[in-house]
Automatic annotation (TrEMBL):
ATP binds at K123. This is Riboflavin biosynthesis protein PYRD, chloroplastic. GO terms for biological process: riboflavin biosynthetic process. Residues 388-510 form the CMP/dCMP-type deaminase domain.
């Protein structure tokens, strides 16, 4: 500025004959362009390639500067060539005849060729349309646009091939293929990988949207246009349908389709799910439904973490102004990624846990490599690629059934889906013992659509009169054509009679679809039906060095925590009075609308009930105090809602017999309290084979030289089907006896 004020010549040029006006025009410095013109700069000065400032401004897409230069008499002697990238490559350096066809784009073919010893991708425009001036103009504009882009998540432009007959440009070659190829090969991705891929795409798209002076709109963001480098990074490519987003841009005609709802949210959905959920549906009709009828894809909780579901729904908001920008999407994804990484770090001490478990009671644990992946439940582990088939609908039945966790005992949890012409027309689940069964609710939901439809049920429909009529009659009356069930009901009253009744009525029945998942859903009910005894889960906490603990991990008892869910799932929980001595309240499930379990408090030692603070303020009517006959129960056991029992000697077997007579299917033994009491219970439990399942919470700290809670070290057991999960900062192990 000072030099200009002194009167310096504004037309001074470098060795390429490029003036300050050339540089300001190509860099988009509008104010400097105006200042130089006011100071007498030659608007049409030419560099040694014959380019004027207007040529540069057009080449780099600076429309405002173009108008200023044109208003001052600027010309562009290069014409259309000014929009061709400056980085020209001699055609003799690339042997196109020896290239390998690796793909086809909107404008032409893509070949794998070698340039200066390096494999690169050569993108061509079809000869049949190269003569079309509009197409050629768009192609050259694409190159002029692409040559300015520099970002780790954008495929790198290398140059345009100076070929006399064909339009060809070179980009870096990414040998790992496209995201489409990855999904076809691997199916559903694990959450951490899916989020990392989504971040790559979002960062690349944010760079395009934040491009100056005008945002770049991709308009063809499909899995085929996202490529992967050898380092595993995803890069956005193919700007054949890109366009400068200007206020009043008319005359731009797209030469290809834009795909169906091709936005970052659907890319993320595909990665989590492994494929589209709309197979068999017309893409254009589906797009219309999503645009005009506010139809959105189903996001099952067994596949999508809650933060991911929320982000996807925000991206699909009906009001475009409410949808997040890519910059905001990146922020959300980074938080989700950080949380997932923290869980993965916690999971890294699985191997350490397996060794330390041997120190605690000499446990012999058998890890299955296929079952120790972080962050899954039985449903998550069984869920494969989300293709629309019988398995898909049974998995949906299981998802519906789980809505009634803790409310159906002694009945099983059951879900039902009615499907007609490939679409779900009715859904239902059994909400509570005494209420109508899942099939009834699903048929009501389907209405007349149930006729000639297929009913999917997680458990064989009942065929007897209880508190509700048989579900087989409801299905027959609704005139369903087929019934697919997850498993046969072990209840002797049903025991395949439901299947036979349906078959006798001319209904085709398929059984055993996703049977393992359905059995896992109702493991307590099945055990109760087969043995007449409650299903007992043993729970305890331990440190990394094998010491038993009287505490829970962070957030374990909060809503969504594993302990809160255990309380929701079980009909009763057995606690030692010694474990409640310092507790101000009894443990309760904090899950929404949870049905609280019966609290069974064992008064084995000489502890006075007065020493249990929770008893004084008990507002829970579901409380049972069990003591030995030589121990007197204090007056507060007579208060409303508190029951009491006395045994000669407190026996776990007798307690479970009482639970059996109460109709309980599931009981949780919470292993906290004095060592003497615990040892007696455990010894009896293992000697009598009273335990069916074990849940171990391993907290991330060491106890050092402290003595273990239990001294009974001769106890050995084998945990089968051991699986592992992350819960807050702890690791959970689940196994069966």
């Amino acid at each position: 500025m000072e030099e200009l004020m002194k009167g310096v010549n504004t037309n001074l040029a470098d060795y390429d004959k490029r003036t300050a006006l050339h540089l300001a025009s190509c860099e988009g410095c509008t104010e400097i362009v105006v200042l130089l013109l006011e100071r007498g700069a030659d608007v049409n000065s030419m560099d040694r390639w014959g380019r004027t400032p207007l040529s540069d401004a057009r080449s780099f897409g600076h429309q405002e500067i173009c108008k200023i230069l044109e208003a001052h008499g600027g010309i562009d002697p290069m014409g259309l060539d000014s929009q061709t990238p400056c980085c020209e490559i001699d055609s003799n350096e690339v042997d196109m005849t020896g290239g390998t066809l690796i793909g086809e784009g909107a404008y032409g073919e893509v070949y794998l060729v070698k340039w200066r010893g390096t494999e690169v991708a050569a993108k061509t425009i079809r000869s049949s349309i190269a003569s079309n001036k509009i197409v050629k103009d768009n192609f050259l504009k694409e190159l002029a646009l692409w040559q300015k882009l520099r970002h780790p998540n954008i495929v790198q432009f290398l140059g345009v091939l100076n070929h006399p007959d064909r339009l060809i440009f070179l980009t870096e070659y990414l040998r790992n293929g496209s995201l489409y190829d990855i999904l076809q090969k691997k199916g559903r991705l694990d959450p951490l990988t899916a989020v990392a891929y989504a971040l790559d795409i979002a960062r690349g798209m944010n760079y395009l949207h934040e491009h100056k002076p005008h945002a770049i709109i991709h308009r063809d963001l499909t899995p085929r246009n996202v490529l992967q480098s050898e380092a595993g990074r995803l890069k956005v490519t193919d700007f054949g349908l890109s366009k400068i987003a200007q206020g009043k841009d008319v005359g731009y005609k797209m030469t290809g389709g834009t795909g169906s709802c091709t936005i970052i949210s659907l890319q993320t959905k595909l990665m989590f799910q492994g494929g589209p959920s709309n197979r068999g549906e017309d893409p254009e009709k589906l797009a219309d439904k999503r645009a005009y009828e506010d139809l959105r894809p189903h996001l099952p909780s067994i596949v999508y973490p809650e933060p991911v579901k929320k982000l996807l729904r925000d991206c699909w908001h009906k009001n475009p102004d409410r949808r997040p920008t890519f910059e905001e999407i990146i922020g959300h994804l980074e938080i989700i990624q950080e949380n997932l990484q923290q869980k993965a770090i916690t999971a890294c001490y699985y191997a350490v846990v397996s060794w330390f478990l041997r120190l605690s009671w000499c446990v012999s644990c058998h890890f299955s490599l296929s079952a120790t992946k972080c962050g899954g439940s039985d449903i998550k582990q069984e869920l494969k690629q989300d293709k629309i088939d019988d398995s898909y609908y049974i998995r949906r039945c299981v998802e519906l059934a789980r809505k009634a966790i803790g409310h159906t005992s002694p009945n099983p949890m059951v879900g039902c889906v009615i499907v007609k012409d490939g679409k779900i027309v009715g859904e239902g689940f059994h909400p509570k013992a005494g209420q109508p069964h899942a099939e009834v609710f699903a048929l009501r939901d389907a209405g007349d659509f149930a006729e000639n439809a297929t009913a999917y049920v997680s458990l064989e429909p009942c065929n007897h009169y209880g508190r509700t009529p048989p579900c087989t009659e409801a299905l027959i009356k609704a005139k369903v054509r087929n019934v697919v069930i997850g498993m046969v009901d072990p209840n002797p009253i049903v025991a395949s009679t439901g299947v036979k009744k349906l078959q006798d009525a001319g209904i085709e029945v398929t059984a055993g679809v996703e049977e393992d998942m359905c059995r896992s859903l109702n493991e307590a009910y099945i055990h109760h039906m087969l043995t007449g005894k409650p299903f007992v889960t043993l729970r305890y906490s331990m440190s990394l060095d094998g010491h038993l603990l009287n505490q829970l991990g962070e957030e374990a008892a909060e809503c969504g925590g594993y302990y809160s869910k255990l309380l929701q799932e079980n009909d009763a929980i057995i606690l030692l009075s010694s474990a409640l001595a310092e507790k101000s309240s009894f443990p309760i499930s904090k899950e929404p609308a949870a049905n609280q379990p019966l609290k069974i408090v064992l008064l084995k030692s000489s502890n006075s009930l007065m020493q249990i603070p929770a008893l004084k303020d008990n507002a829970d009517s579901k409380l049972l105090i069990i003591s030995e006959k030589d121990k007197s129960l204090e007056p507060q056991t007579g208060q409303e809602g508190i029951q009491s029992l006395s045994f000669d000697v407190i026996s776990l077997l007798e307690i479970l017999e009482h639970c059996k007579h109460q109709g309980f299917c599931s009981v949780l033994l919470d292993l906290r309290g004095s060592n003497v009491d615990l040892e007696d219970l455990l010894k009896e439990g293992f000697e009598q084979n009273l335990f069916q399942k074990v849940v171990v919470e391993v907290l991330p700290f060491l106890c050092g030289g402290q003595e273990s809670v239990l001294k009974y070290s001769d106890l050995k057991f084998h945990a089968k089907k051991l699986t592992s999960f992350v819960s807050g900062s702890s690791v959970l192990l689940e196994g069966y006896f």
